[in-house]
């Protein structure tokens, strides 16, 4: 069975210099599934996830691959309906 989405880096995806690298993942139909940045291969900074129709589904912040701070889940119209605060470990 094929994966549900494609990961397509916008560069070499994991430079060792610790600099943020833009990263985008796509649904099978080519629409954007997720976008944000990676640092040393880990999700880092602000990220957004999208439904197949392009509406925003979830957004939040990572620090070295760990979810932190405020995470927002959006309804099918892209309107925020749930906010979760995640404390760093």
Please give a quick description of this structure.
The chain has 89 residues and is mainly beta. It has strands spanning 5-9, 21-27, 32-39, 42-50, 56-63, 66-74, 80-86. Helix content is 0%, strand content 60%.
| Helix residue percentage | under 10%
How much is the radius of gyration in Å?
14 Å
| Gap from first CA to last CA | 35 Å
Low-confidence stretches: 8-12
- What percentage of amino acids are in beta strands? over 45%
What number of domains?
A: 1
Please report the number of helical segments. Answer: 0
Helix/strand class: mainly beta
Major β-sheet strand ordering: 1-2-3-4-5-6-7
Overall outline? flat
Residue-averaged pLDDT, rounded? 87
Largest sheet: 7 strands, antiparallel
Instruction: List the secondary-structure elements in sequence, H or E.
Output: EEEEEEE
**From the structure provided, what is the oligomeric state, counting identical versus distinct chains?**
single chain
Number of DSSP strand runs: 7
């Amino acid at each position: 069975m094929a994966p549900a989405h494609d990961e397509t880096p916008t560069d070499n995806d994991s430079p060792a210099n610790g600099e943020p690298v833009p990263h985008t993942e796509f649904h099978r139909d080519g629409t954007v599934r997720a976008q944000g940045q990676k640092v040393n291969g880990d999700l880092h900074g602000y990220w957004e996830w999208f439904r197949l129709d392009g509406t925003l589904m979830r957004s939040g912040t990572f620090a070295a691959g760990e979810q932190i701070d405020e995470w927002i889940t959006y309804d099918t119209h892209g309107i925020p309906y749930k906010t979760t605060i995640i404390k760093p470990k």
